[in-house]
Amino acid sequence: MRPRPHIPPDVEDYRDEHWQREGSLQVETPLDAEQFVERNGFAACLTDARRPGASLYVAVCGRRDAVMPRNVQKDPEASLTWQLKDQLVRRGKTYYAKLSRGKAMFLAPRMIPYFHAVWGIRKSEETRRLSQDASRVLRVLRHEWELATADLRSESGVTERRAFTRAIDELQAVMLVVPSEVVYQPRFTYIWTLGIGRFPASLTRRVRRDNAVREIARCFLAGAGLTIPGELARVTGLSRPEAGLGNRALVADGYAVTPARGVYQLASRVDVVQRQPPYT
Description:
This protein is an alpha+beta fold. The radius of gyration is 20 Å and the shape is globular. Helices cover 48% and strands 14% of the residues. The two termini are 12 Å apart. The strands form three sheets. A three-stranded antiparallel β-sheet has the order 1-3-2. A three-stranded antiparallel β-sheet has the order 4-6-5. Strands 7-9-8 form a three-stranded antiparallel β-sheet, with helices on one face. α5 (112-119) packs across α12, α7 packs across α9 (161-173) and α12 packs across α14.
């Protein structure tokens, strides 16, 4: 069995700085959170140290080994992350939705066209690719523009809770619908709207898929410093073959080097990272 790749200590230090896994870089305010997403290009919301990539929760904790507790309701760091997520949704400067494989992610505006090129769909494809329930929910939102969950369920006729959740997750995954507000009184609900209403320029910009994959890979490598086999795919939801194509495009650009099979390193850090293979 091939040994599991290992992240060298100096690369972990690099990630600590860029993913703000240090106490001095903790995220505490909505502005901090927006700057964190903008700096990294994209970030997960509530993942912890067991998954790679930038994470708002880990940045709130400000430590590399942050692990989400079982009882998140009583955890102050999980609660602050949730509150910051709600405020970022409300402020509307960063894209937030459940994207590929149901991952709740934030996107900086500059990265929206690239993610949309990979996971979005054109209007001409909706009839073929969307389920009937998702099409009904989308039709209502295009007429009403913005509705709370209960009203959207009623107006669309998708009243069964699980069916509606599947439909709204499907629409988020193809970057058609996003939450625009979170309301807690008189009862908890999301307000849903069309993504293009919040980010019209980003969602109408055409980008070739291969270029989009390359730029997603570039964005991840810029924050990670070095990536090992399967990491980019795990973080973004890309297939491993396509993630590999993106990384190899960075090598062709001179942005990255590949010191071992499946390992990609920032070319600018070749003299910083120890040259002996630390990934074995």
